[in-house]
Amino acid sequence: MRHGRSNPQEERWRARLATRVAARTAGDLSRAVGVFGGYVPLELPLALGLEPLVLSFGGSPQAMQLGEKYVRADACPFCRSQVGVAEAAPWLGRVAFLAAFSACDQENRMLETCGRFLDLEIQVAGAPRTRSPNALARYREDLERLRCRLEERFEAALETARLAGAVAKMRRLRARLRARRADLEFADFAELVQGCLMLGVDPALEFLASLEPKAPPAARPLRLFLAGSCVARDDLVFARELAELGAEIVGDLTRLVGGLLACDVPEGTSTLAALAEAYFHQPDMGARPNDGYYAALAQAVEAVRVDGVLLRCLKFCDIHSGERRRVKEALEPLPVLFLDDEYDAAARPRRRTRLESFVEMIRCRKA
Ligand code: SF4
Q1: Does residue 12 lie in a domain region?
Q2: Which candidate, 296, 289, 215, places its Cα nearest to that of 254?
Q3: DSSP assignment, residue 346?
Q4: What is the Å distance from ligand 1's center to 191 Cα?
Q5: Is 4 among the domain residues?
């Protein structure tokens, strides 16, 4: 069931996007490179004439239950549901190659499992999460390895001019998606971003160009910022519930929505080393030290002027739940709700109560 305000215009773009994603996944995937995680530069497959598809599906209790057949029940719900959807999405087995930088042990297990049972050609490396020069050098090597494998597999060669062109295109795509942020509620925006990134870059640019201009939704009384665990495509009920309570998520720094769009690759970047540098320094809560994430968080929160912050952590997501205290301290005096969450339908009433109390507390503060 959908929550929140939708109108016929919104339903039209949503239906068109869903149709295009379905057609994309039913079509020829022999040059599609599935991408997991924020450290695979989409510019690399693009510059090789391939089609990067960001895989961010999953997020429903049903998918999570399916995934439990393959990964341990103490993996985060995001990872369990990714495997579950992979089982139910036969098209994924037709993706030519899967590239990933695993951000945590749970993701590692999920990727190994997906690769094994779908029999995919896959390259997984660890996300470069220490900020030592050595980590950057290793990340560059991993990207070089990925480049070589892609070149060999698809008989392509990376050229500087094509890489610069791919960088320009991705900059355009990120900018066009960001430009839609003010027009849409968070759940709709997340759906737009993740749907577009499933289309591939050129079709996504074309789809965005075809969208009719839209009046921004009427402002809700409370403005919130979202940080925390990865947000999957079917994991948006919490945002729609917040909207029902009169609170709007006006910005986020989560890995598969705002975090993905925040990665800034400078114009004119034309070497793999420079691309690696840009992706290496993206805001990542799991990096050590993660001061860069906190600087980006403070800046993003400041830019949208909010009444409070939601730090949403999925069950077993240690990367984000371990930062609870520091997030509170870093954002003082803004109120921060630490919401431990899961996909299980049984957890919904408790989540609703916590969201209600938080919204009410902010309302009283503002009164
Ligand atoms: S960062 Fe958290 S939510 Fe994302 S894959 Fe890892 S454990 Fe799961």
Answers
A1: no
A2: 296
A3: G
A4: 19
A5: no
Protein residue with its CA nearest to atom 4 in ligand 1 = 230
Query: Taking residues 17-43, what's their average pLDDT?
Result: 95
Q: Report whether pLDDT(288) > 80.
A: yes
Quote the domain boundaries for residue 157.
21-366
pLDDT, tens digit, for every residue of 195-228?
999 999 999 999 999 998 777 777 778 999 999 9
pTM: predicted TM-score of the whole model, two decimal places: 0.94
**Ligand 1 probe mutation, 108, 320, 324, 342, most atoms within 8 A of CB:** 320
Structure tokens at 36: 């997991």
Ligand 1 centroid, distance to 107 Cα (angstroms)? 7
Cis peptide before 333 (omega within 30 of 0): yes
Q: How many structural domains comprise the chain?
A: 1
- Name the residue at shortest CA distance from atom 5 of ligand 1: 107
Q: What does the alpha-carbon distance between residue 297 and residue 327 come to, in Å, rounded to a whole number? A: 9
CATH number of the structural domain spanning residue 172: 3.40.50.11900
| Mutational pocket test of ligand 1: of 83, 107, 108, 114, the residue with most ligand atoms within 8 Å of the beta carbon | 107
| Protein residues whose CB sits closer than 6 Å to any atom of ligand 1 | 76, 78-79, 103-104, 106-107, 229-230, 314, 317, 319-320
Is residue 6 one of the residues assigned to a domain? no
Token pair for 279: 């992706």
Q: Is the pLDDT of residue 9 over 70?
A: no
- The DSSP string of 42-95 is THHHHHTT-EEEE-----SHHHHHHHTTTS-TTS-HHHHHHHHHHHH-GGGGG-
Say yes or no to pLDDT of 300 above 60. Answer: yes
Closest to 313 (Cα-Cα) out of 219, 209, 193, 231: 231
Q: String of b and e for 135-168 (b: at least 16 CB within 10 Å)? A: bbeebbebbeebbeebeeebebebeeebbbebbe
Largest CA distance in the chain: 64
In three-state secondary structure terms, 328 is: helix
Q: Which atom of ligand 1 is nearest to the CA of 285?
A: 1
Q: Please check whether residue 294 lies inside any domain of the structure.
A: yes
What mean pLDDT comes out for the span 348-356? 97
